[in-house]
Amino acid sequence: KCDNKKYSGMNEIITIGDTGLDSNHCMFKDDSAIYDKYLLHSNSISLPKYVSHSKIHSYIAVKEHISAYEYITTDYNDYESGHGTHVMGISSGNECDEICGISSNSKLLVFDFSIDADDSDMLITPDNFDAMFETSYSSGSRIYSASWGTESNEYTMRSFHMDDFMYKFDDYNIICAAGNSGLAGAGTIGSPATAKNVITVGASTNSLESFFKVKYFSETDILQNKDYYENQTLISFSSRGPTSDGRIKPEIIAPGMMINSAKASDYNHKDFTTKMGTSQATPLVAGAIANIRQ
Predict the structure, then answer these.
(1) Where are the beta strands (DSSP E) in 125-248?
(2) pTM of the full predicted structure?
(3) What would the pLDDT profile of 80-127 be if each residue is shown by its tens digit?
């Protein structure tokens, strides 16, 4: 319930880099708030200005240099993909139609990544993680939620950069989605979730009650397969450890099946949709950490 939570992330800022945000959605919109939009270049960034009464602390579009003469810049919204809007609603969304995020009083520092022109689910993440994390940290955020990654089970340079920043700033928490390659078996955790210091999140099923609310599932099927749908069961698609160098992952699992949250739209700003994946489980953990910090 949205109205009886003792802890809701008050005074906490969650940083999320994703496909952008539909800031006009009822879970995020604040007509009284004015916030500046910034461009993050690979090697420089202007520090965002804090707006105390806004759900959105800052909205930063990432501008990536892809060739000698060409840059990719985001569009300051999320209408094409909707992934980022859904994720941010899970962690921090204000109450709307009796639905709210797990840390509904937390604020959002948004990094809007570019998306591939041929695949709206393919993010073009920044090459320079340090500028992104330093901006987040300097703005007062101590939580970064990453609902993206690769299928590589190796310890990559991106894994290293996350580890390096968390080593230097040990009060900063980076939470990474494990990936959705679990059907291929063990050793499917994807970089950068292979990093040593990050919290890697796998996906579990929800309570039985939540499945009855989704029209996609028949009541007969749910009751006949209670062991599959029951709470705390690891979902088959959730990526498994170990990492390529033998470390145990993920550290934690959270509900990631048919999660209801904000739906990005350029005309209906009170719409919701259900999605599933470790992308949905990860902001649940990020929001829980915000509540713990409060």
Answers:
(1) 143-146, 173-177, 199-204
(2) 0.88
(3) 788 999 999 999 999 988 889 999 999 999 888 876 655 556 677 877
Q: 20: Cβ–Cβ under 8 A, 6 or more apart, which residues?
A: 74, 75, 76, 77, 78, 81, 84, 85, 110, 112, 113
Structure tokens at 212: 């009855």
Distance CA 84, CA 82 (A): 6
Beta bridge partners of residue 56, listed in sequence order: 108
Integer Cα distance of 253 and 204 in angstroms? 6
| Beta-carbon contacts of residue 166 (< 8 Å; ≥ 6 apart) | 172, 173, 174, 195, 197, 198
C-alpha distance from residue 39 to each of 46, 58, 109, 112, 289 (Å): 8, 11, 13, 9, 28
Instruction: Identify the helix (H) or strand (E) that includes residue 275.
Output: strand 272-275
CA distance 136 to 118: 30
